[in-house]
């Protein structure tokens, strides 16, 4: 996704001057260096992530049920029949693959955010595919999680089409260094996945206000389905959201992670999932490179100790948007 945005900058020198981080540099200099592989299961398995989050008093979406074996698939209807809406997802999936969101149903017809209907047979087949590893990393056998839907705050009305918007924060050594909000669209089928057509809105790390928006790697000003002015977006409870993201460093033990947070109307900010290999499209959404911010954290040295709140204060001061980027 980032390639077309970078096409105008032909030389490696120009990219380095902008502070743009490429995939090889991310993998070698940051993921491999700061993320011990023995800790990957804590974030690659969403059930494990939920467990360590609850142990750390980090709020997560309610778990309705887990289906681990094929003979349990027939129990799906019993688990969800009293829930007006729910989400089925693979525990070890990535990139939004295998996630099915149901916003309403009558026990026979299950309606997705796009308005498309599914039957219970369709959903059971999908769960079977999850168990078979169709959506998991490496194609390994998986389990299916059934979670309650987020009752998202009305402050985001018009900013997202049907689905729940989430905030992705890149956290390096506990410091939140860059953030964006991912807004679902009709094209993304109600999912907040940029590769499927969701809108990415770069956020000022100091204020949580929008500074730039893109869809399919192209700058946009208004949401393609609702017409809402994307530059009006401001994430409430921003300091608390950053503090929760920052605390995921101690919670997971991983030095370079992406935290996906959502804002529930009743429960406030909650952790949706962690990513040990966060993508680079956040640079496109912000119109800025990650490298200068990462290097500033590295310059603090190994012996510097900060609490999550101190790390948030540092990041908000050092990485605040210096100029207002306008979408065209």
From TrEMBL:
Keywords tagged on the record: ATP-binding, Manganese, Nucleotide-binding
Family annotation (InterPro entries): ATP-grasp (IPR011761), RimK-rel_E_lig (IPR011758), RimK-rel_E_lig_ATP-grasp (IPR039523)
Keyword Nucleotide-binding: yes
Alphabetical list of Pfam families matching this protein: ATPgrasp_ST (PF14397)
Keyword Manganese: yes
Residue span, ATP-grasp domain: 50-305
Source organism superkingdom: Bacteria
Protein name as it appears in the record: Alpha-L-glutamate ligase-like protein
Lineage, highest ranks first: Bacteria, Pseudomonadati, Pseudomonadota, Gammaproteobacteria, Aeromonadales
């Amino acid at each position: 996704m980032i390639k077309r945005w970078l096409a105008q900058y032909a030389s490696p020198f120009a990219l380095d001057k902008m502070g743009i981080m490429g995939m090889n540099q991310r993998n070698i200099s940051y993921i491999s260096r700061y993320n011990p592989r023995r800790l990957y299961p804590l974030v690659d398995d969403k059930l494990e992530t939920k467990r360590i989050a609850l142990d750390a008093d980090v709020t997560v979406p309610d778990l309705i049920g887990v289906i681990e074996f094929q003979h349990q698939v027939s129990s799906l209807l019993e688990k969800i029949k009293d829930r007006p809406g729910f989400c089925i997802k693979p525990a070890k999936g990535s990139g939004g693959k295998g996630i099915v969101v149901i916003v309403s149903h009558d026990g026979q017809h299950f309606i997705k955010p796009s308005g498309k209907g599914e039957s219970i047979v369709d959903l059971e087949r999908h769960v079977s595919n999850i168990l078979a590893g169709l959506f998991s990393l490496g194609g390994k056998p998986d389990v299916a999680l059934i979670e309650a839907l987020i009752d998202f705050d009305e402050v985001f009305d018009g900013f997202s089409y049907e689905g729940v918007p989430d905030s992705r924060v890149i956290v390096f050594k506990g410091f939140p260094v860059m953030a964006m909000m991912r807004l679902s669209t009709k094209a993304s089928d109600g999912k907040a996945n940029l590769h499927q057509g969701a809108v990415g809105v770069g956020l000022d790390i100091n204020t949580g206000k929008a500074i730039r928006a893109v869809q399919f790697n192209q700058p946009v000003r208004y949401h393609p389905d609702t017409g809402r002015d994307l530059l009006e977006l401001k994430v409430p409870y921003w300091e608390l959201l950053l503090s929760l993201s920052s605390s995921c460093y101690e919670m997971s033990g991983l030095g370079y992670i992406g935290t996906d947070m959502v804002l529930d109307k009743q429960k406030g900010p909650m952790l949706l999932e962690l990513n040990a290999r966060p993508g680079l499209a956040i640079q496109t959404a912000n119109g800025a490179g990650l490298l200068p911010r990462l290097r500033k954290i590295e310059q603090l040295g190994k012996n510097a100790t900060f609490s999550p709140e101190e790390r948030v204060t540092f990041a908000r001061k050092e990485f605040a948007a210096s100029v207002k980027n306008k979408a065209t």
